[in-house]
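quick one before i forget lol
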Amino acid sequence: MLQPTRTKFRKAHKGRIHGNAARCNIMNYGSFGLKALQPDRVISKQIEAARVALTRHMKRQGRVWTRVFPNIPVSKKPTEVRMGKGKGSPEFWACRVKPGRILFEVDGVSEQIAKEALYKASAKLPIKTKFIRRFT
């Protein structure tokens, strides 16, 4: 699972995800990619599940770039605990994804295989996504 080695603060505010992606919205590495169409938090387990589905379908041919990293700690209180007594402990790591952000990039395989692999990866994510290709 992805998570930062160390952070400045142990807990973070929930925050809101406004607007479209201003960075990571252009393909830099691969020929084909997966672009987010909705704003949401993507958990490290979901990123890992999508990456595994992607590489398994591609049969470990070609190259995969993950363009998202979970750097936001999400805290949670235990079940059946009364209100008050402070914020819960960090449970998992998430990444705030804005619409237009490139999530994964793929290269070294045919368009058909890349499309199928990215479709399988998108099934593991909680947001709507779109298959894109680079025009050079």
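fyi The two ends are 34 Å apart (CA to CA).
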